UniProtKB/TrEMBL annotation:
<keyword id="KW-0479">Metal-binding</keyword>
<keyword id="KW-0378">Hydrolase</keyword>
<protein>
    <recommendedName>
        <fullName>DDE Tnp4 domain-containing protein</fullName>
    </recommendedName>
</protein>
<dbReference type="Pfam" id="PF13359">
    <property type="entry name" value="DDE_Tnp_4"/>
</dbReference>
<keyword id="KW-0540">Nuclease</keyword>
<dbReference type="GO" id="GO:0004518">
    <property type="term" value="F:nuclease activity"/>
</dbReference>
<dbReference type="GO" id="GO:0016787">
    <property type="term" value="F:hydrolase activity"/>
</dbReference>
<dbReference type="GO" id="GO:0005634">
    <property type="term" value="C:nucleus"/>
</dbReference>
<keyword id="KW-0539">Nucleus</keyword>
<dbReference type="InterPro" id="IPR045249">
    <property type="entry name" value="HARBI1-like"/>
</dbReference>
<dbReference type="InterPro" id="IPR027806">
    <property type="entry name" value="HARBI1_dom"/>
</dbReference>
<comment type="similarity">
    <text>Belongs to the HARBI1 family.</text>
</comment>
<dbReference type="GO" id="GO:0046872">
    <property type="term" value="F:metal ion binding"/>
</dbReference>
<feature type="domain" description="DDE Tnp4">
    <location>
        <begin position="28"/>
        <end position="120"/>
    </location>
</feature>
Length: 212
């Protein structure tokens, strides 16, 4: 994650250049990486809502789709919000370490530092906001890999290679469509998480300030 004020401002500037959405410092989402069936004790915890074994991986990406933060330690049955609730990144946001906010989907509660889509927008500007929030999630389809050993280290290594490829201006999504068609099933739908009162107020103020 960007640490200095200059780095944070540059990240925010790049996000704003995409959809004129201010103060965004990252887009957060989780995706499932298929693993071989775990037969050891606790193996059932790896079975997600679609019925296959996976690791639920949380990533935060910047406007260039580089992965700034990654969490790989959770089994497939764990909800996205629990992963965020117990990660160090949430603690850093609550401590005021960042000047911007995250964008996530409705699998997260709306908080003062993590905005989620409005479910029933009544204003065309609000509909534009939903579109901007939804874009990052489209990049993270289910990625299915058969990983036998040290799977979590392998996932992190793939994230590092992904960032290196972006720095080298390689087409990191070439062949992505074929992989999705070959391996992935329907997306795993997270249950809706109700926003917090403070998050609702902060989001409404944000919309009135920047999009009225």
């Amino acid at each position: 994650m960007p640490t200095t004020l200059n780095e944070q401002q540059e990240t925010i500037r790049k996000f704003r250049s995409i959809a004129n959405f201010p103060t965004i410092i990252g887009a957060i989402d989780c995706f499932h990486i298929r693993v071989k069936k775990v037969n050891a004790d606790g193996g059932q915890l790896y079975i997600n809502r679609k019925g296959f074994s996976s690791v639920n991986v949380q990533v935060v990406c910047d406007a260039d789709l580089k992965i700034m933060d990654i969490v790989t330690r959770w089994c497939g049955s764990v909800h996205d919000y629990r992963i965020f609730r117990e990660c160090r990144l949430k603690q850093r946001f609550e401590a005021g370490a960042f000047s911007g906010i995250l964008l996530g989907d409705s699998g997260y509660p709306c908080t003062p530092y993590l905005f989620t889509p409005l479910l029933n927008p009544t204003h065309h500007k609000k509909k534009d906001i939903i579109g901007a929030i939804s874009v990052p999630g489209t990049q993270w389809k289910e990625v299915c890999l058969e990983i036998l050993k040290q799977q979590k280290k392998t996932i992190v290594a793939c994230a590092v290679l992904h960032n290196m490829a972006i720095d080298m201006r390689e087409d990191v999504f070439s062949g992505e469509r074929d992989s999705i068609e070959q391996y992935s099933s329907e997306p795993i739908v997270q249950r809706y998480i109700a926003p917090s009162i403070r998050g609702n107020i902060r989001r409404r103020q944000f919309i009135e300030t920047h999009f009225q």
